[in-house]
Design goal:
Shape: extended
Number of helices: 3
Mean pLDDT: 82
Structural class: alpha+beta
Low-confidence stretches: none
Helix content: 25-40%
Radius of gyration: 24 Å
Largest sheet: 8 strands, mixed
Distance between the termini: 74 Å
Length: 152
């Protein structure tokens, strides 16, 4: 096994994109978009706005045989439907995500904050764990009571 210092030095480091930039790797696109929940979307074709609305990102996937679908306020985004993802910010520094494919653009503007959602999610998990513990405890109490009634 040999180590070639020349080929190691010629390798480019993986990209590092912070808030603004172009993402071409489908897995990276999928990871970035998976954190979205409520969004405002704008769909343009040849520079003309064809539709807009608000919805919830229910699924982000990579499958060349499936479509990106937006219907009934639900977004199912297939990153294979697009050539790249352009990360950017509005004038008031709000994030925006532009999915581009030829002359088609699907702009996603987050309406929810992932930091707040993570806190809410953690609280919900803690509440759920407390309820489960309470139910299990009640179940054990019932089993103990049953054993006392049937023991000789």
């Amino acid at each position: 096994m040999s180590h070639d210092p020349i080929s190691r030095s010629k390798r480019m480091p993986a990209p590092c994109i912070v808030d603004v930039g172009t993402v071409v790797n489908k897995q990276d696109m999928q990871r970035v978009l998976a954190d979205l929940s409520r969004v405002r979307y704008l769909h343009t074709q040849d520079g003309v706005l064809t539709s807009e609305g608000e919805g919830y990102v229910l699924e982000v996937f990579a499958d060349p045989q499936r479509s990106t679908l937006i219907a009934n306020h639900a977004l199912y985004i297939n990153v294979c439907s697009f050539d790249f993802l352009e990360l950017g910010q509005s004038e008031d520094e709000e994030p925006r995500f532009d999915l581009i494919q030829d002359d088609r653009q699907l702009r996603l503007i987050p309406l929810s904050d992932p930091l707040q959602e993570q806190t809410t999610h953690r609280l919900n998990v803690a509440a759920l764990e407390a309820v489960v513990a309470e139910v299990l405890s009640a179940s054990w109490d019932v089993q103990i009571d049953d054993e006392e009634h049937f023991s000789f």
